[in-house]
Amino acid sequence: MKFEHIGFIGLGLIGGSIAKAIKQKYPQTTIIGHASHASTLEQAYNAGVISNNSKLDLSEFASCDVLFLCSPVGINIDYLKELAPLLSKDCILTDVGSVKGDIHAAVDKLRLEKQFIGGHPMTGSEKTGFENSAPSLLENAYYILTSDAEALTQDVSEFASYIASLGAIPIKLTPKEHDFATAAISHLPHVISATLVNLVKANDSDKEILRTIAAGGFKDITRISSSSPVMWQHICQANREEILHLIDLYMESFSDFRSAIEAGDTTKIHSLFQNAKNYRDSMQTQSTGILPQSFEFYCDLMDEAGGIATIATILAAHALNIKNIGIIHDREFEEGVLHIEMYDNDSMEKAITLLQQHRYTVHKKK
């Protein structure tokens, strides 16, 4: 790989995790960073991730082989305007935002399309900041890459290989494909979740009966409503067209449900639920709530050969039977790369304690 000098504008959870993954895989790489808070730079410097412990002029990022923009979309675009006249033509410019339309439009306007590759690692945590970043956040996580037709194919392929070398799984999409996909599986669910929570709040009694008995299915599908309102305000603004499109499609689907229930069409009602069940069951992990209780947790998988086998052996040696186990590739709202389900609560608690004793980082399902 030719990427020996790398810059980061923003060193929060995602930027910090990528930087740490690079330093872990390629310790000789020189990494410089820029952050809004001097304390963040100091943390990254003390951790041995970046070579500067104070703010740099943006001109010092001009000679980077790769420059990661890891701030919110609007702020990244502001940085683009400042960086455009400074960057070397050989520098690969990339970002980590969950919306691609706006930044690609800005890139085109600034004539940076030949060197820009959009990036979106499908991983994250409810925690924030460099202090919570970790190289394991990239392991086996999908990492979507987007590029314009003008981007050099060789650069895109080399960058995809580089991302794969960090433990992630690169997927190449067009900006429009990306924004529609994330609107469907991420942005719309957040809108639905917020709407449902607001509906329940508005219709609760003075005795707060709904709030008191809220559990199971309600908590499962509304947990993401605890995410940052500011972040989702910006996402809804940046991906407005695709989110509105998906809301319209959802309203049509919702109307089908309403019509079937109103008409007492039991066959249609059963079909709608059955189709949803079949598709959801085909996915890797199972939900809880109104379904039978599950006993599951997530675990950071160490970067080593036979990692899953090692964990299975540790549990088996203590007569703990695993019901289900699998790699989580889309971890934007779940922590941990490995999903493990046990048969009962006692087994789950013993498994968690045992793995923690073996220095694994374990996250219980919220």
Q: How does the helix and strand content classify structurally?
A: alpha/beta
Describe the sheet with the most strands: 7 strands, mixed
The helix/strand order is: EHEHEHEHEEHEHHHHHHEHEEHE
User: What does the radius of gyration come to?
Assistant: 22 Å
| C-alpha geometry | globular
In whole angstroms, the N-to-C terminal distance is 40 Å
Number of distinct beta strands: 11
Structural overview:
With 366 residues, the chain is α/β, with parallel strands linked by helices. The protein folds into three domains: 5-173, 3-Layer(aba) Sandwich (Rossmann fold); 179-281, 6-phosphogluconate dehydrogenase C-terminal like domain (6-phosphogluconate dehydrogenase C-terminal fold, Orthogonal Bundle); 295-364, 2-Layer Sandwich (Alpha-Beta Plaits). The protein is built from 13 helices and eleven strands. A seven-stranded mixed β-sheet has the order 2-1-3-4-5-6-7, with helices on both faces. A four-stranded antiparallel β-sheet has the order 9-10-8-11, covered by helices on one side. Helix 1 links the parallel strand 1 and strand 2 (30-34). Helix 3 (73-83) packs parallel to helix 4 and helix 6 crosses helix 10. It starts with a strand and ends with a strand. Residues 285-292 have low confidence and may be disordered.
